[in-house]
Specification:
By secondary structure, the protein is mostly helical. Helices cover 60% and strands 0% of the residues. The chain is built from three helices and no strands. The radius of gyration is 12 Å and the shape is elongated.
Length: 65
């Protein structure tokens, strides 16, 4: 479901999920909430262009669909 880069990003940004176990529905909710929050707070620059954080958060959310 998630790439190694996405998992590394989530670990670095302290998503509260144990990626060594099967990801539960509750984990998916936490991932979506954290990614959405990061996207809103750090996902865009002053010109409303996506930042690296924003691009990664969008890719995480998209891979959950």
């Amino acid at each position: 479901m998630f790439s190694k880069a996405q998992i590394d990003f989530m670990k670095e940004n302290r998503f509260d999920v144990d990626f060594d176990k099967k990801i539960s529905d509750d984990d998916l909710i936490r991932i979506e909430e954290k990614a959405s929050n990061l996207l809103q707070t750090n996902g865009f620059d002053d010109n409303y262009e996506p930042t690296q954080v924003g691009t990664m958060c969008e890719s995480i959310i998209d891979s959950m669909d």
